[in-house]
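Morning!

This is the sequence you dropped in the shared folder:
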Amino acid sequence: MAVHEHRHRSSGFRLPSFRGNRNSSASGAAVSALTDTSAARAYAFASLRLLTGFVFLWAFLDKTFGFGYATPSGKGWIDGGSPTKGFLGSVAAGPMQSTFHAWAGDPWADWLFMLGLLGIGLALVAGVALRIAAVTGTAMMALMWIAEWPPAKHLADGSPSMSTNPFADYHVIYAVALIALAAVAAGDALGAGRLWAKLPVVRDHGWLR
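The structure's back. C-alpha cells below.
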C-alpha cells in the first residue's frame, strides 16, 4: 500500500493570531487618539475665538452705552461722548503723538473705530470672515500699539511711562491671536464657518473665508 504525504494539508486546528489583533488595536487606538487631539485643538481654538470676540464686542457695547467700566455712565457714544477722544487725546509718547491728537474726537475716527470693534467682534463670535477680521483687527491693534508706544521709558512730560515690555504688550497678543484663528479656520467648530465657506461668493473669493 502506498503512503501519500500531504505536506500542505492542514489538520484543521490553528492557534489564534495575536499579531494581527495587536496591529488592529494599535491602529484603532492611534486613530482614536488623533481624532481626540484634533477635536480638542478645534474646541480650544473655538474657545479662544469666542473669548476674543467678546473682548471686541464688549468694548463696543461699553463705549456705546457707557456701562460704567472703561466708559463712565452717561458718557457713552449714544449720550454724545466720543469713543476716541479720551484715548487718542491722551497719547503722550511715540512718533504719531500729534497725529493722534488731531484725530481725537473726529466723527470719522469715532465711526471707523466703533465699526471696527463691532465688525471684528461679530465675525469672531459667529466664526465667519475671519481673514477680514484678522487683517482689520491687526491694523487696529498696530495703531493702538503705536498710540501707547511701549518702547518709551518716559512720556513727553518726562514722567515714567510704566511700560512693562518694549514690544510684546496685549495689542501684539491680540493681533497674533486673530491671525492664528484665521489660519486654522477656527470658525468651523462652535461657529458658522462651514456654512459660511459653502456660500458661492465665499467659494469664489477665498479672502472672504
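Headline: Confidence is low (pLDDT under 50) at residues 1-13.

More detail when I'm at my desk.
O.
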